[in-house]
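Reviewer 2 asked us to include a model.

Predict the structure of this chain.
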Amino acid sequence: MRIISFINKKGGVGKSTIVANMAYVLNDRYGARVLVVDNDEQGNVSQFFEGQGKYSIADVLLERVEAGEAVENTRYKGIDLIRADFGLADANVELREMDKSGKEWQLKNALDCVAENYDVCLIDNPPQINASMVNSLVASDEVVVVSTTDMFSLYGVRQMLSCIEEAQKLNPHMSYRGTVINMFAGDGDSLAAIAKLREETEVLPVRLHKTDGRIRVKSATNRLQTIFEYSPRCMFARDMIDFVDYLLGA
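Predicted model (structure tokens):
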């Protein structure tokens, strides 16, 4: 099972939207068995997939249950979910205060138990650096930073790069794939911001455009639909396919 985390210290950059739509592409286009792990206490991707299971990612991280007990089916055959809720905030406090060596590996150990059931696991992470995010990075094979071109989002990228370097000391097999630009406007300011970001880190060649696609993404999400169900020919839908193809090396 290939595990990919999506991160940024800045909220509102579209991590949850990308994870939900990427899961759909992986399953619909590639026939992949996908596990989505919501590692954000806000639970946006859990809400999208209508997660209502008895257990959550908090229970998994605190070793109250095995990962398999927290997995629930979604309305999409081939896409399963481990949901999150505000209980994850308390779990992060417990994890931080836990006097136990190797606590950064608890998510990795849990996911290993369900790895044979899936081809890809996508982890949606919170806009903060906490114990559960460290667990996500240590569990991951690959990490993608999601950013817009505004100043605060770009600052969040810089913070994430330091966090990734620290996590690689624990998990040297984890690969930083680069930063994907979301809500790309294509104007001069956006291009200048990307050029500046390239001086510091790898920026992926695929960009997820704003324009008409962004409007349709909001409408699709409000209807609990992926962009491919709501407006499959819009720019964002085409960009998402290119993005997934790029990550998979297709």
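The chain is about 45% helix and 20% strand. The longest strand covers residues 175-184. We have added this to the supplementary material.
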